Every structure is written in C-alpha cells, then in structure tokens.
Amino acid sequence: MRVVNIHKRKIHQPKEKVSQLFNTLATKDDQIWPYENWPAIKFNNGIQIGSKGGHGRIRYTVIQLIEGEYMKFQFSKPKGFTGIHELKVNAVDSLNTEIIHEIRAKTSFKATILWVLVIRWLHDALIEDAFDKVENYFTNGQKATEHSSWVKLLREVYKRKSFRTKLA
Predict the structure, then answer these.
(1) Which residues, 6 or more positions from 135, have their beta carbon under 8 angstroms from its beta carbon?
(2) DSSP readout, 50-112?
(3) Domain 2-167 has CATH 3.30.530.20
(4) Could you tell me if 114 and 15 are in contact, meaning their C-beta atoms sit under 8 angstroms apart?
(5) Within its chain, how far is the Cα of 31 from the centroid?
(6) Which residues pair with 58 in a beta bridge?
(7) Residue 100 in contact with residue 6, Cβ under 8 Å?
(8) 99 has which bridge partners?
C-alpha cells in the first residue's frame, strides 16, 4: 500500500522564532515533542545526518537536515515500512509560519494492516499533540486536540502491555 499522511498547522509567529523552537527537538530542552504523554523521541547522536533513533517502536535514521527548516528521516522499523517522514518549517509571510509533517511510504501486507488499524491513528494523535504544543508555546494557550475513542483505547492497551512487559 502507498501511504501518504500530511499534517499542517499555521503558527502565528515569524519563521525565525518557530525555527528556534524546532532546534530543540530531541534535546533535553525539547519544546516540541509531546513526551509528557507519548514515548520520548531520542537519537544516538542528536539530530544530525546519520543519527539513528525514534520513539516507541518506530525507528528511523536522519538522512537530510537543514537546521531550523527541514528534517528528513528514513524508516527502519516497523518491519514492512519502506519510506520517509519529513518535518518542514515554511514561512507563509513575515508574521506566519506553516509547520508540516509528511509520511511517504510503501507498506507490506502485514504493515498495511498495522498502519490502517493502529499506527495511523496513534501517529495522527501524536503529531496533532506536537503541533498543539508548538502553538501553545507561542500563545500560552491550552489547545489540546481531542483524541478519538479508538486512540484512547489503543493507548490504554499499549500502556497495559508496556506495564506487563516491565513486570516480566
């Protein structure tokens, strides 16, 4: 299956300010990733070309980077996902910036089922939470995208499974 998944959000701030925030991704001062409610994003050498890392069970390698503008990652896990995901910071005008996250991948039969039933739902919720965090950083707001009942159920199942794994 061909997977194309795109999230966009307009942030009412100049690109320079949003870019500075994006430079904190996967650092100890991360201001983007919603690690409070999701598995943290980590890389073996920070975000630089060739670094390997990911979040939860998703793994990838940094393959392109323009600091403050563009990050491109190549999937290595889960098995059956062949493709990339990108994070872009684009100026709309001098006062507004658009942040974009894109996945472009091909999936095996098994990975397609996993994508359709589980990963897509969790991925979409995570990205919207990250975009909420960026927006809230600049507005001191409390924007919180509501998760669907399916996402809430999947997260509960994952938490319980992780808890049982820790006990074993």
Answers:
(1) 9, 11, 141, 143
(2) T-EEEETTEEEEEEEEETTTEEEEEEEESTTEEEEEEEEEEEEETTEEEEEEEEEEEE-HHHH
(3) yes
(4) no
(5) 13
(6) 55
(7) yes
(8) 9, 89
pLDDT at residue 165 in the model: 43
pLDDT category of residue 141 using cuts at 50, 70 and 90: confident
What whole-number distance in Å separates Cα of residue 144 and Cα of residue 165?
30
5's CB contacts (< 8 A; 6+ apart) are 102, 103, 120, 123, 124
Hey, what's the torsion of the CAs at 150, 156, 158, 164, to 10 degrees? Answer: -150
The ranges assigned to domains in the chain are 2-167
| Segment 28-65, tens digit of pLDDT | 999 999 999 999 999 999 999 999 999 999 999 999 99
Spatial CA neighbour of 8 closest among 95, 98, 85, 126 = 98
CB 73 within 8 A of CB 60: yes
Distance CA(25)–CA(18), nearest Å, equals 12
Whether 136 contacts 21, CB under 8 Å: no
Peptide bond into 14 cis (omega under 30): no
Q: 3-state SS of 115-139?
A: HHHHHHHHHHHHHHHHHHHHHHHHH
